[in-house]
Each structure stands twice: as C-alpha cells, then as structure tokens.
Amino acid sequence: MNNVPKKDFKEKLLAQIDQLNKDPNFHEYYDEMIIHYKYSVGELSKFFVEIRDNAKLFGTKCTKCGFGYFPPRLYCNKCYTKCEWTELSGKGEIIAGTIAHFGVSAFTDKVPISIAFIKMDGMDMAIRHTIVMDEADYKIENMKKGTRVKVQFKPKEKREGKITDFYFVLDK
Amino acid sequence: MPKKVAIVGISAFPFRVRHPHYTYYRMAFETTKMALENANLSINDIDSAVYGIYNDFFERQFMPDIIVHDYIGMILKPGTRVTTGGATGGYAIRTAYMEVASGLSDVVLCLGVEKSNDCWDPNTDTRTPELVKAISYSADCEFVRPLGSFPAASYVLPVRAHIEKFGNPSEESMARVSVKNHGNAIGNPNAQSPMKITVEDVLNSRYISEPFKKLDCCLYSEGAAAMILASEEKAKEICKNSGNEPIWITGIGAGNDSNFGGLRKNLWSLTSNVYASKQCYKMANIKNPLKELDVAELHDAFTGQEILSYEDCGFIEHGKGYTLIDEGIVEEGGELPVNLSGGLIGCGHAVGATGIYQATEIVKQLRGESHRQVSDAEKGLLHSVGGPVTAYCVCIIMER
Ligand SMILES: [Zn+2]
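Above: inputs. Below: predicted complex with zinc ion.
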C-alpha cells in the first residue's frame, strides 16, 4: 500500500493558492456575452399564436398511441407518428411543486415563486410552470400533489406569443 | 471485447469559491502537470485528450477546449470536449475509456476544469444569481428557461414527489446528509466547504427551494481534476515506474432521461440513475452493491438527491433510502460510506471537473491514499449526474 504521496508539489501549490488569494493585486474587468434573436419557432408557431391572439392553450396528441404532449410536439417519440393539435380546458393538477426563495439574476426581486410540474386535463406529460398566489398562500401545503390549478393569461396587450404569456393560479 | 483500461494517474486543483489569480487554462495546465507527475509521465506520452468543460458562459469562451489543448502542449494530437451538465465529468471519463478500450489510444488524459464564479450580477453585486442564469440556458429555452428556474428548484421536485409518495425523506434525514458531507470534507485539502455542523444548523438555515435549505445545497466552485487512463500493457509499464497500483475500470453505465421531468413516468425516481447503475453493475458483475462496494462517491448537489440516489443506485429499495443515513450505513465506518471526500456539498461543484474529481477520490481509496481511508477498499462506485432534473447519468465501477 502506498500511503504517502510521493511528491510535495500538491502542498506547495495549496500554500501558494491560499497566499495568492489573500493578495489584492490582481485584475478583473467588466464583460458580457449578448446575442439578439428573432427566433423562429417553426411547427410550434400555432401554440404561441393561439396564446397571443386567442388566449387558448393547445397540446398535441399522438394519432397512434394517443399520448398527450404538453408542451406540444409534432412527433410522438415512441411511435414516430405525427401528433395532432388539441385544445385544452386550461385546467390541470400539480404533480410536484416547490416554493422557491431564490432566483436567477433576472428573478431575484420576484421571489418567492412557486414552481410545479402541472399535468393538464387530457394530457399525459406535465409542464413545469409557475403558480401565482396571494402573498399568504405561498406555502408548501398549497403545492400538494393533486392540487387543482387553472391557467390565467396576461392582458392581450402584454402578450408576446411566449411561454411567459400565461401562468397558473389555484383553482379553489 | 473492449480492451482492459486502467487509471494510472490522478490529480486535483483545489475547489474554491474563486481562483482569481488563475485563468481556466492555467488551472488546466497545473492539473495536467500534477497528473503527469503522479503517473511519472511527460505530456509526450499522452496520445489523446478528453476535456470536461461544461458551460461556455462560465469560461466566457466558446470552444475553451482548444485553448486548453494548446496551453498544455497537446498540439497536433486528438482532443475532444464533453459537455453534459453536471455529468460532464462522468461522460468525459466514459469517452476517455472508449478511446483506450477501442485501441485508438494507449494513454489518454481526461481533464475537467471549470471557472464559474467570474459570472457577476450588476444589480446585486453578487455572483451566484448570474452563475445560475448562465446555467439556466441549459434548460429548454422554449418552455422552461424563461420562467426563471434554477438547479435547486429543478432537483427539489423529484424529492417533493418522493416525499408525497413515501412520506420521506424528512428534513432531519436530509440535514444528516449535509452534516455527514460537510464533516467528511474536513481534512480534505481540495474541499471548499469543510465544516463541523449540526442537524440544527442545517434546519435553521434559510429555505432556498422548499424543502431544500441553504445547507442542503452544494456551492459552485472553481477547480479542476484529471485522470490518466491507459491500456493494460501500458498501465503495467507506467505503474512499474510510478510505484502506483493500477486501478481498473470494470463497469460503465450511462443513460439520459427526458429533459422534461414532466414526461417521466415516476417523478419520485431518478430513472436515468436506475438505468445507468444497473448497466454498470452488470458489466462489473455486481449483484448486491450495498454489500459488494467498499466506497461510493454520489452526485450530492442536494442532500435529498443523495438520498434518492441510494435507492436509484440500488443500495436499497425505493422508499427506504433515508434509513441508510439515519442508521449510519453511509457514514464513515458504515457498511458503505458515501462521499468520504465530502461530495459536492463538502467539496463544492466545479461542474465540468466534479465527476472526474470524485473519481480521483475513489482511486485514492483504492490506492490507500485517502484522508478518510476505508481499510482494504477494493471496489468503488462513481455516480455522475447532471442536466434538468438529473437527466444525464453515468455510473462507473473502479477496482483495485
Ligand atoms: Zn405515440
């Protein structure tokens, strides 16, 4: 058995790092990575246009096995068969949920937020989305499996044809 | 039949919150230098390289691997980058293994490096929110990323589903994992967060994404790790010169689940982990992992995830994972110690380097060089996980 490291390079390096990290004499500068897009959503266009123009949610169903996809997709990955559009009622239930008290930089002023997997009625796949609640309702007890939720759309003038055009509320 | 593959050299560049005095390519260089010294080789002995670097936003550089490739002196030799989220390390080892097992290369460098905390949020003058924003681009940008998800909120949902199905793990059981892993990191010079804490300390820390609290979560790190893999013939020759025992890779399994957690049948089980671990046990002829393994390094980005992994890696049946921590079975001195290095919670998470780093800790155990040595350890498991709701998984068995 070889219990002793053969070289002390490692210890020297560690001492060096800890020393350097105390030393304020280093340089850092501001930089950023930004790319702008006019992003084409291809076969998903109907989904986003229906949200924006008609405040309607559409999923897709496999024409062979009947599996319901929401978020929608054009092909069933099990049958390799085309799916067809189907309008949803806008109601569903929580599969699993959490109350988040932390967020990415664009969301740090928006916490707490509730994030849940929501299975829409008639669909087999759940979507991960947010449930907007009254301040006092942000409790893990309100995020139980089976809790009924319903969709809410932003006012028409604020809708952009994006996933953020709608959110969910508790269906009390 | 694949050729036999051995690990003949290891190294790690300490995981710290920041290494502002080091570029990522210099960290890669120092780590390569240490791995070569460990194997008593020179860079000229390396036939090809596999690089584990996860996130282009972290390094602020697309194709950072080609910069590393030059810096470490691998010009005109093959080099491949792997990027599979938190499982980048595991998949990099798998790729390096394939290069040797196929006979394409005799000696391969597998190098993971990540420098994540240069990300900075001007609004809060802090780093983590911008760092998790960089990570958030790994989530589906059509349907998930715009809603502001982040890793803790992603990984907590299977744990929530598990709690609702089985009534566990409790917040106390999860806290015990935090106490164990922070404690195991004490004495590990590569660890970022060695701490002696109590269950109460964890329970009193603030909620990040319920029920995960601050001390249930790993911290992001800057660091690097490397391994040198060699064919049987080469390994014997190299180890004769270096005096190290060759450590053999005897099982590898990998599988990716849907990036949409909502497409999975059972959210309470990390099914990619079940698939990958079964595959690696089959290859290594392991029937009862809890009994046959001497040591395991699991991807504990979050405490609750470690407990679910006990079940999904086949240590115990579904719904009983918490008993392994509550009864001390995964503690130092227990039947199967898990994360004696400290894991991600104790050591930190330098994403692309993490899986390779944890593998080097298994190698240390099998060589008898660990700061928390399991006596006569012969078989170890590495579990490397990443992506939305643990979509990617690689499991690797290493043997003396
Ligand atoms: Zn189908």
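The longest strand of chain A covers residues 91-100.
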